[in-house]
Design goal:
By secondary structure, the protein is α/β, with parallel strands linked by helices. The protein contains twelve helices and 14 strands. It binds phenylalanine. Phenylalanine binds next to helix 11.
């Protein structure tokens, strides 16, 4: 309570100071442009936030070294969501109300972006998620496009379709079981999207088993699945659970490949004892570190030099998202939130690391996906799937 009062008081004071300035809007007077990033830097999905933050920071360094945006330097303010919905909401509120950011970047996880999206709408501050793929992040349940919310990645109806087609055509599987995380909007949506395409192509979904996030024992679901003798198992979850699921599946004698989506992308997925369990499995993703086009190679090398590790899809999407924000502010010619929102919605053919980015009417980016195969613990490029 005390903290709340102090916060309110500080807010009030800032409000008075701004209105005394008489310019109606603090950004115009500031000599920096503030961008807020809310990210899972700790907790269950910490590698998501850490990699995104590194990608964004690399972009900010480059942009600032090249003179900034509208002659001003970018000031990046990062808030930790600790991988929880509660802190995601607090972080978004804080960045908007206390810091007065021009644009919000984040989150990776769809469930966390879904918490922040209504806040961005209410506060009329543009929000750009680098990597949340659930459709409802930008278009609400009633089918209304959220005016202030955008993304630079493809969405799960596409990602689910990609993997279903891949399973049917490239792997010639016919009978698949699904194991999804019921507490995760991303996972539930992707399972549904995969099933729809796979069944429409004449494939059979033997079962759709579910677990709840933070579960560590999947043996009962996996035993049921094993007894149905599927050709493959689709596991649209995050790396934390997928590693355990793979390990336990192998322990139970399941040898068929597991298939998944971008949520698998983490250096933790195949660490140590998990390496063998995931050998020969496949997942869909936004980017491949093996892409040899000059631009992507330059990014990958620069990232490696800066951080001593290779970028993941989130690093590349964070980098692209920051550049798109800089481009939108430049085109808007100001940091006015309506002008920046409009400029974001008009993003067209922006040459990103993850492909050419055009923001469509649903505020999504239509892009190709890659399928990666896990070989000796590494994510190796296998195929590109066009929209
Ligand atoms: N698309 C995932 C989600 O919505 C997040 C993610 C993106 C994870 C990219 C890894 C890589 O929830």
């Amino acid at each position: 309570m005390y903290r709340l009062i102090t916060l309110l008081f500080a807010g009030l004071l800032a409000g008075i100071m701004i209105s005394c300035g008489g310019n109606g809007g603090n950004e115009e007077e500031s000599d920096v442009i503030k961008i807020g990033h809310f990210a899972s830097l700790q907790g269950d999905i910490a590698t998501f936030g850490q990699q995104t933050d590194k990608g964004i920071k690399l972009a900010v360094e480059e942009i600032n070294a090249n003179g900034g945006v509208l002659g001003k330097q970018i000031q990046l303010i990062t808030e930790d969501t600790r991988s929880t919905t509660q802190d995601a909401g607090l972080a978004a509120e804080k960045l908007i109300s206390n810091d007065g950011v021009t644009v919000l970047l984040g989150e990776v996880a769809s469930s966390l972006s879904l918490v922040a999206a209504p806040i961005a709408e209410r506060e009329q501050v543009p929000m750009l998620t680098p990597s949340s793929t659930n459709p409802e992040v930008t278009v609400d349940k009633n089918g209304n496009v959220r005016k202030y919310v955008f993304r630079v990645c493809f969405i799960d109806p596409f990602q689910g379709k990609v993997m279903a087609k891949f399973a049917k055509e490239n792997l010639s599987t016919q009978r698949i079981a699904i194991l999804k995380d019921n507490a995760n909007d991303y996972s539930v949506g992707l399972a549904k999207n995969f099933r729809e395409t796979f069944e429409a192509m004449g494939g059979e979904i033997l079962a759709e088993q579910a677990f709840e996030a933070k579960q560590v024992d999947f043996k009962s679901q996996l035993t049921d699945i094993r007894d149905m003798n599927p050709d493959a198992i689709y596991v649209p979850g995050y790396y934390t659970e997928v590693s355990l699921i793979a390990e336990q599946a192998r322990d139970l004698g399941i040898t068929v490949p597991l298939l998944g989506g971008d949520g698998w992308d983490s250096p933790e997925l195949t660490k140590g004892k998990f390496k063998e369990a995931l050998e020969g499995c496949y997942f869909s993703n936004h980017y491949s570190v093996e892409d040899t086009t000059a631009k992507v190679k330059a990014f990958t090398e620069k990232y490696d030099q800066s951080y001593g590790e290779l970028p993941g899809a989130m690093s590349a999407l964070g980098y692209d998202a920051m550049y798109i924000v800089a481009d939108a502010i430049t085109r808007a010619g100001s940091t006015d939130s309506e002008a920046v929102t409009k400029a974001l919605s008009e993003t067209k053919d922006f040459p990103g690391i993850t492909g050419n980015i055009t923001i469509d009417e649903q505020h999504n980016a239509e892009k190709s996906a890659v399928v990666l195969m896990i070989k000796e613990g590494k994510f190796t490029y296998f195929a590109t799937m066009e929209p």
